[in-house]
Amino acid sequence: MDNAKISCKYFPELPARWRCPRCMINISDACAKRPEGADDRYEIRRDCPICLEPLQSLGIGNSIKPFWERIPEFFIYPARLDALIYIALLSLLNLLFAVNILLGIIALVTTSYALLLYSYKCLNHVARGHLEAPGLMVDYKVLKSSLIFKQSMVYFLVASASLFALRLFGAPGLIVTGGFFLLGIPASTTLLAINGSILDAVNPVSIFRTMAAIGRPYFVLYLFLLLMLGSYEMLEQTMLEHIPEFLIMPAVFFLQAYFTVAMYAMMGYVIYQYHEPLGFDEVKKVEESPRKPISGLSADPLLNEIYILNIEGMQDAAIKRLQKAVARDPKPEYYAKLHRLLQSTGRNAELCRYGEAYLKRLLKHEAMPRFKRLHEAAGVYADCTRADPAFDIQDPQVVYELGEAAFQNRQFDDCLAILNGYHKRYPQSELLPEAYLMVAKVMVEHKQDDAQAKKILDALLKRYPDHAVTPQVREYHQLVSSIIG
Known about the structure:
- The chain is an all-alpha fold.
- It is 64% helix and 2% strand.
- It has 23 helices and three strands.
- It has helices spanning 71-76, 81-93, 101-127, 140-144, 147-169, 171-183, 185-195, 198-202, 204-214, 217-240, 248-273, 275-278, 301-311, 315-328, 332-344, 348-363, 370-387, 396-408, 412-419, 422-425, 432-445, 450-463, 470-484; strands at residues 18-20, 25-27, 56-57.
- Strands 2-1-3 form a three-stranded antiparallel beta sheet, with no helix packed on it.
- β1 and β2 (25-27) form a beta hairpin.
- The protein is elongated and about 115 Å long.
């Protein structure tokens, strides 16, 4: 079946949604750059992530999964809770046939009308791109448009046209006219749902244009609708042999309702898939993203933009955009990308300039586990000191946490180097006792310099007798004293 999809250049697993005439590339919606201040309520506009020029839309039809790949979903569509409750309630009303035949007929007419109302509601809901079953509230748009009456008129006019053809041309006329309209039922229903016009729904030219707009997949749709009808007939025959007589009407109605809702949902999806050639412009939701993770693809549009610029070898442009981004919205993810790009391009001065700000953001990133934060922070600090041995940080909190990170990573020499001279650089820091308690632990446990550790602990007890960490210092001082003897 010819339904070739244009793939995204950078994420081939995704269908393309946009084309850049300047760069001659097709890209997905995830790759397109949303202009600042753009409002999708009035105009959906996107720019090229490379040249920043406006993109041309390929239409979301290219990004929608074909209906024949969703056939199992249509069969289970009425089994979703809202739809199932609605169908079950309507079916139970047909128990009135067991009470009184007149009441049963009234119940059948009423429930059939309610079923068609809900079926059209499902069709309209799916046609706009909402693939879940709608709620149970009455769709007043369907009610006010008199679609049920109009559909009845369409069937009446089609029957009249077939009888007229029979009178004029005999059996061949009936076969041709009736056959065409039977084949055109999905197209006729589609036209009625889109514009509510009875004349369009019975006009052979309009029906043919609708079939042509969908193309060969129209016949696939028709085949699956016939299969659904056939399944209904088979289930009905099987069921009638095994249920009590008073349940026959509710059970038959339930099966009919189930398959009717499924068929209308399928026709709605066909409108959704082919809404552009059909002239239906009320689609509100674009096809959902693939469930499987795609390498390199991020939920953040800017990170996808940077990924693309990297692939195209435009590291300078990527760095400039990230610098603007961290100034506007200093996310650790943006700093991480900027850090890696500056490091890979050898821009050491900028690496160190952004290094302290990155470390501050990283260490405050509560969404990341503390151990991971400290581990990554130690790596960033090491990168900066390799780029510039004189790299220095002015924030005592950051320096302390970096020392703690090195300690936890068992990088004890780095821990001593980071905290070296802490009391001279930050004499008023509240973290000074904790920093030097950590230094004392390194000296005892990893440098076997108990005497130096005891000197540090003596100084802490003398200078900070009432600090919150003093009990820990005193306890460790006793341990070290007992070791020295």
